[in-house]
Model the fold of this input.
Amino acid sequence: MHPISDSSLSAEQSFADGLEQTFVRERAIETWLKQSRSAQLGLLMASLLISAMLWSHAEPRWSLLWIGLVMVVMVLRLRFTERVIRLPGRLSVPRRIGLLLLVQGSLLALPLLAFEQFSVIERATVSIMLIVIATASVVTTSGFQAVFLAFAAPMLVPLAVVWVLHPPGDDSALASWGLAAL
Done:
């Protein structure tokens, strides 16, 4: 083959690969935006249950403040997320999504500050809800590991820490470390 044709084929392949990557990224972002809207209802239901548990163990104003903040973030995500993601900016779209999810994931983990006051059943309930929320986010963040970690890590790392710091009533260190490892 002639050297010119090899380089032109290579340039065409690079261009095609770039188009394919752009298409895949755009589809992933569209999927995230679509599923992000529908996921807010599930997050609201879980948050209301956590807020009810928090209400019985902390000052009611903290429970109301937390659920109020959760609702504000949810409403803002429903109303403005697409605009924020679509606007041109210095940060890449995955980073902007990651920052939004970092805020929401951190907010969802705040009730863990009252973990010590929860009963074992309430601890398990909160744990299951946070783990399910993080696990479900795999679907909406597929292909963007950093985005998934921005959402899940602020919930799961503190969850593991509180299980180690506040073991179940039988003081089983092995069980606490096992739960934290999950």
Summary: DSSP finds six helices and no strands in the chain. The two ends are 57 Å apart (CA to CA). Helices lie at 3-55, 60-86, 93-109, 120-140, 145-165, 173-181. Residues 70 and 107 are 7 Å apart (CA to CA).
